[in-house]
Amino acid sequence: MSDSFSGPLALVAELTHRCPLHCVYCSNPVELANRARELPASAWTRVLREAAELGVLQVDFTGGEPLARPDLGEMIQAARSAGLYASLITSGLPLDEKRLDELVRAGLDHLQLSFQGAREESANEFAGAQAHAQKLRVAEWVKRRHIGLTFNFVIHRRNLDQLGEMLALAESIGPGRVEFAHVQYYGWAFANRERLLPTREQLDRSLDALKKAEERLRGRIRVEYVVPDYYAKYPKACMGGWGRKVLLITPSGDALPCHAANVLPGMTFENVQARSLRWIWDESDAFRKFRGEAWMPEPCRSCDRRAQDFGGCRCQAFLLAGDPAATDPVCSLAPRRGVVDAILAEVNAAPPATPMPKTEWLYRPNPA
Amino acid sequence: MTTPEPNSFPRLAAGCRLNEKSQQPRVLLMPERALRLNGPSLEIVERCDGKHTVQQIITDLQKIYAKAKPEKVEQDILGYLALLRDQRALDLE
Known about the structure:
The complex is a heterodimer of chains A (368) and B (93). With 368 residues, chain A is an alpha/beta fold. Chain A contains 14 helices and nine strands. Helices cover 35% and strands 12% of the residues of chain A. The radius of gyration of chain A is 20 Å and the shape is globular. In chain A, 49% of the residues are buried. Chain B is α+β, with helices and mostly antiparallel strands. The mean pLDDT of chain B is 95. Classes of the chains: A alpha/beta (368), B alpha+beta (93).
């Protein structure tokens, strides 16, 4: 693989872990960074310049909720000055039209708005906040400005049956792109997994509906979705392969190959305040650890798909098999696939989703 | 996949733009993806400004690539514009 050591294409910039929402499947780590440790805009400006020099084309400003940073406009401007495409991954809170105009003037290219469903009551339940009505307002505001708009519906057992309503909502507003993102089981979602994993029947029905929607909306709305990997035959090419395409910076400046990597034992992640991005990407132990094929166990090492899925996800291997260097247990060829099958058997034996008292959720809190 | 109308005006959709002329390689940037542009595809995308019709783009490129068969150039352009439209990178007005 001659391109293994070329530069990353995308930078995920987690500006803060603070968030007005408390989603039960938040991808942030269970250990949240507090405000005092957040990188200042001046450090982000340097990181964005270094990223562009490394070949990065796009930056996703995310969090937590990036709007919680009053200096977000400054960082968008720094991204554009560095020649990067700037996306804002947001819940839409707290935002008004004046602030949106400020961000657009700063050079925002694209806003991705998360939705917890199509029905206000349950969407607010999953978010642990009164957020849904505001999202609808934000969508209309963004539509009136000439920037890209994506709706991101996070889907799972408790809202998958609202898929038709979610599609209708997207069609009524008309973003250029709509993403149906199955919950991925890390961090807070891992803690709430039994309440979130869909049944096989729910999944099959939803995939059929999504395929039809993709066809019907072609040329108007780009519809994207992936099969949740517990149900897949082969693992996902997590982040396009470890240290191959994507670099993530946490609010306090640690550089990670993916959102969840800090759960892995025995890893040291370098900080952008101490090291250059190029050194971190090219030289650091963390980025080299699972890059390429040398680390792979069998059956990955001799598998025809090893250059397609790179052995799957290291964090999932650790969470499900207890070993970050194992074949991702969601793979049908993995020695530990039985762990996933047992989880699925339990989920599919349970009765279909029924209303569940709110107190059963483990909500993500806010950092100090 | 329907063929773009010769009299329509292609324009890059909201959230889609070329990177700067000074940047190499040239790419079409769009939400969550980027498309690398080579000679002809860059010539096409640079003309998707809402001011050129599909027909004008075809005529321009037939001049630039005079050695290629004109009908092949036309076919390639129509296919490429349809692809960009289906990716929601292009509005045809």
